């Protein structure tokens, strides 16, 4: 049996006395789409930072297709095929939309092919009209799309999206949901989101984080009905 | 497309400048030719910082370290070999090696930007004190006496490559220095337009994003730093060729600060800016020195303050923005960039 795409075992990080991620065992199969939810401060973004090498775990391991990548540097993990859209968009502000995507595509490809791939993604994401604009001057929702485009241009096999729908209009949220399902035809994704409508649109399996630990992991309908999940979201007692 | 047009513009501008440089001895007297030669040598130095700071995002406060090392290497090698060609090559090579070592420890050691500035400044001061204390017969490399604070006089100037007997005249040395400036400028323009150039700009913009796309920011920064060292070392050789003399003041704080002022005033994030800033301020300082009405440092400080407050982008980017907005007014680009809502 081959190793799962992504597996964490006892993954833990402490900042002083705070345990932000607490012994998380998480497994993602090839081409799976997983949603990761949890209240503010549950450790979702920190978990992503551990997966991408932006933070080094205090304890535990991350395995990508059986290979131990815990403690590796971000660029090394990116080269293994992990792409991430961060919560606060990380983009190249003084560069144009086209250049942002081109830089991402250039890592694997020749300059000419990178230009072709960039054009393709600009068309797919309907960004052609703003391709020549500097990213620093765009609205938040557009910057989100640019960053998603940048991630796609890097052609990762596992894509992590941290709040991809934040700051988007209703129409844009629906487009994002469609896009995620389109991407999922060929690649695995983990999506962190607060918007429950959005989660319902895309989710199959949902993992709930609470205070750094996994609270529950199950089918989306059952997770959303679970009393403990309501408790942690609304505060204990209120949902009782 | 825009890149291509920019490059065409740079080529046309460079061609015009080259014609100006080559014909200058016909209508400018020897004293002014000598002035222009040192200005051009310093402009090469300004380009080195303009590149690593403006494009690589590395604020090196001690760019004179590489400039001075290049100058001393050239002097020592030219005296020993009695031929300037290998001396010029060594004046590039030694600073590159030094930049590689220094840069490796700073960049791979994860030193933050501010401390990188402090360390490079300190290194230039260490070199200043080191060379300053090499007076006496004991300190010599081959036939070359380092001379401590007195410096090294009578350094052989450039000769024709392969013909050490043919020493260039001051007019020819000016042409070499002027053309060298253009070559360095165009070389950097090409580098910036290349994939490597795009990537270092991306790293300047957002190091985290670049790393998350698989680029190792450290190696790109190190190479950028080394290229800056190479150009500064080359400028050092050009400088010694101008005066046939080098002394420890080449490492001193004053020059380190001046290079930064040239880049700020000329405009960071452009290559023409540092050249403009350097030529303009050197000309001004020379004029003030001739008048003796004001202290040059006082004027330089005042100009810096005025620019930081009123023209923070520097001359070249400000002029470019003005031209761009003029184009926009003529209707070539829509001036209205307000958000359009479509349902």
From TrEMBL, chain A:
Residues 6-236 form the ABC transporter domain. Keywords: ATP-binding, Nucleotide-binding, Transport. Gene3D superfamilies: P-loop containing nucleotide triphosphate hydrolases. Signal peptide: none annotated. This is ATP-binding cassette domain-containing protein. InterPro entries: ABC_AA/LPS_Transport (IPR051120), ABC_transporter-like_ATP-bd (IPR003439), P-loop_NTPase (IPR027417). CDD domains: ABC_Mj1267_LivG_branched.
Automatic annotation (TrEMBL), chain B:
This is Urea ABC transporter. PANTHER family: HIGH-AFFINITY BRANCHED-CHAIN AMINO ACID TRANSPORT SYSTEM PERMEASE, SLR1201 PROTEIN. Its main location: membrane. The keyword Lipid biosynthesis does not apply. It comes from the Bacteria. The chain crosses the membrane at residues 7-27, 33-53, 65-82, 88-107, 114-131, 173-201, 222-239, 296-316. The lineage of its organism: Bacteria, Pseudomonadati, Pseudomonadota, Alphaproteobacteria, Rhodobacterales. It comes from Roseobacter sinensis. The keyword Transmembrane helix applies. It is a multi-pass membrane protein. Keywords: Cell membrane, Membrane, Transmembrane, Transmembrane helix. It is found in: Cell membrane.
């Amino acid at each position: 049996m081959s190793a799962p795409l992504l597996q964490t075992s006892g993954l833990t990080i402490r900042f002083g006395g705070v345990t932000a991620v607490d012994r998380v065992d998480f497994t993602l199969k090839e081409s799976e789409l997983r949603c990761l939810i949890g209240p503010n401060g549950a450790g979702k973004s920190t978990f992503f930072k551990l997966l991408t090498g932006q933070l080094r775990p205090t304890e535990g391991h991350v395995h990508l297709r059986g290979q131990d990548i815990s403690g590796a540097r971000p660029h090394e993990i990116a080269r293994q095929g992990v792409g991430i859209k961060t919560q606060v968009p990380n983009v190249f502000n003084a560069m144009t939309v086209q250049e942002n995507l081109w830089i991402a595509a250039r890592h694997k490809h020749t300059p000419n092919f990178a230009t072709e791939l960039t054009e393709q993604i600009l068309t797919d994401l309907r960004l052609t009209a703003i391709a020549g604009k500097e990213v620093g001057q765009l609205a938040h929702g557009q910057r989100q799309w640019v960053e998603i485009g940048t991630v796609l241009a890097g052609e990762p096999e596992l894509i992590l999206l941290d709040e991809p729908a934040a700051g988007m209009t209703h129409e844009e949220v629906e487009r994002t949901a469609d896009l995620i399902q389109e991407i999922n035809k060929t690649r695995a994704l983990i999506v962190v989101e607060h918007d429950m409508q959005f989660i319902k649109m895309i989710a199959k399996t949902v993992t709930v984080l609470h205070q750094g630990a996994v609270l529950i992991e199950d089918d989306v309908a059952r997770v959303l009905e679970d009393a403990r999940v309501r408790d942690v979201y609304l505060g204990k007692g209120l949902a009782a | 497309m825009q890149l291509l047009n920019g490059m065409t513009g740079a080529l046309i501008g460079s061609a015009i400048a080259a014609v100006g440089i080559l014909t200058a001895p016909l209508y400018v007297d020897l004293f002014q030719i000598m002035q222009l030669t040192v200005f051009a040598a310093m402009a090469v130095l300004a380009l080195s910082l303009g590149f690593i700071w403006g494009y690589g995002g590395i604020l090196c406060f001690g760019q004179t370290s590489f400039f001075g090392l290049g100058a001393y290497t050239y002097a020592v090698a030219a005296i020993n070999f009695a031929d300037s060609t290998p001396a010029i090559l060594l004046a590039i090579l030694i600073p590159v090696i030094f930049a590689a070592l220094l840069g490796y420890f700073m960049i791979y050691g994860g030193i933050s930007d501010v401390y990188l500035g402090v360390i490079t400044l300190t290194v230039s001061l260490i070199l200043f004190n080191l060379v300053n204390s090499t007076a006496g017969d004991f300190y010599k490399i081959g036939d070359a006496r380092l001379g401590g604070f007195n410096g090294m006089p009578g350094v052989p100037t450039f000769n024709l490559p392969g013909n050490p007997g043919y020493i260039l005249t001051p007019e020819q040395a000016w042409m070499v220095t002027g053309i060298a400036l253009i070559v360095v400028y165009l070389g950097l323009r090409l580098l910036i337009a290349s994939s490597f150039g795009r990537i270092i700009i991306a790293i300047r913009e957002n190091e985290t994003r670049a790393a998350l796309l698989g680029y190792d920011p450290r190696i790109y920064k190190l190479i950028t730093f080394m290229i800056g060292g190479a150009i500064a070392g080359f400028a050092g050789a050009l400088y010694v060729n101008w005066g046939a003399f080098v002394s420890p003041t080449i490492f001193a704080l004053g020059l380190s600060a001046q290079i930064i002022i040239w880049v700020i005033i000329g405009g960071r994030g452009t290559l023409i800016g540092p050249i403009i800033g350097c030529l303009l301020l050197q000309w001004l300082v020379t004029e003030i020195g001739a008048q003796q009405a004001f202290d040059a440092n006082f004027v330089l400080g005042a100009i810096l303050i005025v620019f930081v407050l009123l023209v923070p982008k520097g001359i070249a980017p400000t002029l470019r923005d003005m031209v761009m907005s003029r184009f926009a007014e003529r209707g070539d680009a829509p001036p209205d960039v307000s958000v359009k809502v479509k349902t």
